[in-house]
């Protein structure tokens, strides 16, 4: 198939909030600096649902969603040297070119090389899509579009991994699990003995708890409005649980009272701007640091009294947990293979691409963490 158009199945989001439709999609060959990947397994993340809802200012329709997956390189375009046909890979929505101002700054895992193109659903080369249906272009999403049996990504947006790794598991290392672990290890740099609060006990929040436990946190306080989440959260490291609905006082006051003045680190893993405020204000005066992980819709704004920051609290955010994707995803796969990090425990359902709309419905079910689709 090298150099030829491939027709395959993909779940197309034709319009916001309309069911995804499994369509026969044409996938064009990769151009220079591009890689065509046969996607074997993809998971669903709340960010897919966020864009599907129409709330994402960068959301364009029709598009192929999906950004947490694993597969095998089918073919590469001219000039691609770091991967070849047959390599096992994880697509990376956070690219890493190693040449741009961001990559060279030593201060961020952001990368500027292809973001302008991926933000408008096209490829860098010709600002066009590689997906089409009978000649009608279908937009890319986050530079990954993994809800398709074949996708085309930039070579700086794909990590080559150990072929021993089970793709049906390590697909999760494309987003949620690394984001939670990295928010603790890279963005906050949680020290042993720290007191940590994590708001939202979904996949990302549980990965924060796992990361905090590995970092030697002394207390990991889990906050969720669904008390059914607590039992499972204990398996990921949560030591105490608070349901804001069971308290009259604002949750940040409850936490300050419980921790002799506030936590050392907090993590918002929901996407709710009022919880983001609580997550900041439950931090300890003088040093408490709050990391925003959750994605909030355009127009949503955070607020707090400047005095909260003047007196030493720090408000930060994270993309993909601060991991440099191409360089560090392979080592996360190795950590999984050595059983140093969990992946299997975050997979609660296995389905197929055809079931994708049912899979999204499942995500609103409190027991669901990650659904993995066999493509
Ligand atoms: P999820 O929906 O599985 O988890 C959210 C959890 O928050 C659920 O358990 C829910 O019960 C709980 N919750 C909802 N409202 C709450 C409230 N008011 N107070 C306390 N708990 C509340 O989502 P997820 O897949 O874990 O993702 C979490 C967020 O992180 C989403 O916004 C997602 O878009 C974002 N995300 C960001 C990145 C990044 O790189 N920054 C990466 C992955 C996911
Ligand atoms: N287009 C969206 C961006 C929302 C957002 O913040 N996305 C996260 C990844 S969430 C993965 O589950 C992110 O890290 N973005 C980095 C980037 O470069 O967009 C919007 O709201 O505009
Ligand atoms: Zn995601």
UniProtKB/TrEMBL annotation:
Q: Which GO terms describe its molecular function?
A: alcohol dehydrogenase (NAD+) activity; S-(hydroxymethyl)glutathione dehydrogenase [NAD(P)+] activity; zinc ion binding
Q: Any idea where this protein resides?
A: Cytoplasm
Where is this chain primarily localised? cytoplasm
Q: Which PROSITE patterns match?
A: ADH_ZINC (PS00059)
Boundaries of every Alcohol dehydrogenase-like N-terminal domain copy: 32-161
- GO CC terms: cytosol
Q: Which EC numbers does the record give?
A: 1.1.1.284
Would you indicate the residue range of the signal peptide? none
Q: What is known about its subunit structure? A: Homodimer.
User: What is the name of this protein?
Assistant: S-(hydroxymethyl)glutathione dehydrogenase
The species is: Anisodus acutangulus
Query: What is the taxonomic lineage of the source species?
Result: Eukaryota, Viridiplantae, Streptophyta, Embryophyta, Tracheophyta
């Amino acid at each position: 198939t090298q150099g030829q158009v491939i027709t395959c199945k993909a779940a197309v989001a034709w319009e916001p909030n309309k069911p995804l439709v499994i369509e026969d999609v044409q996938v064009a060959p990769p151009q220079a600096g591009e890689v065509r990947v046969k996607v074997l397994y993809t998971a669903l993340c709340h960010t897919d649902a966020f864009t599907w809802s129409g709330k994402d200012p960068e959301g364009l329709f029709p598009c192929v969603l999906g950004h947490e997956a694993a597969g095998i390189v089918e073919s590469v375009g001219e000039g691609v040297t770091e991967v070849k046909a047959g390599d096992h890979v994880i697509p990376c929505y956070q690219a890493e070119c190693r040449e741009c101002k961001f990559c060279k700054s030593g201060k961020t895992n952001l990368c500027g090389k292809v973001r302008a193109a991926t933000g408008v659903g096209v490829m860098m080369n010709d600002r066009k899509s590689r997906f089409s249906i009978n000649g009608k272009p279908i937009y890319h999403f986050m530079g990954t579009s993994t809800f398709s049996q074949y996708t085309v990504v930039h070579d700086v947006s794909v990590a080559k991994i150990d072929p021993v790794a089970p793709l049906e598991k390590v697909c999760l290392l494309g987003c949620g699990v690394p984001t939670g672990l990295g928010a603790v290890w890279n963005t906050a740099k949680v020290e042993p003995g720290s007191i940590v609060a994590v708001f939202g006990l979904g996949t990302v929040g549980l990965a924060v708890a796992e990361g905090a436990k590995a970092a030697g946190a002394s207390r990991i306080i889990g906050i969720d409005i669904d008390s059914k989440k607590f039992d499972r959260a204990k398996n990921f490291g949560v030591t105490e649980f608070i349901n804001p609905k069971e308290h009259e006082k604002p949750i940040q006051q409850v936490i300050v009272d419980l921790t002799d003045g506030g936590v050392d680190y907090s993590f918002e893993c929901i996407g709710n701007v009022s919880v983001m405020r609580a997550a900041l204000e439950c931090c300890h005066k003088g040093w408490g640091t709050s990391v925003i992980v959750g994605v909030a819709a355009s127009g949503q704004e955070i607020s707090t009294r400047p005095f909260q920051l003047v007196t030493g609290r720090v408000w930060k955010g994270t993309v993909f947990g601060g991991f440099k994707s191409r360089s560090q995803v392979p080592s996360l796969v190795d950590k999984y293979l050595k059983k140093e990090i969990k992946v299997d425990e975050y997979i609660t359902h296995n389905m197929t691409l055809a079931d994708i709309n049912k899979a999204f419905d499942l995500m609103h079910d409190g027991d669901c963490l990650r659904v993995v689709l066999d493509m």
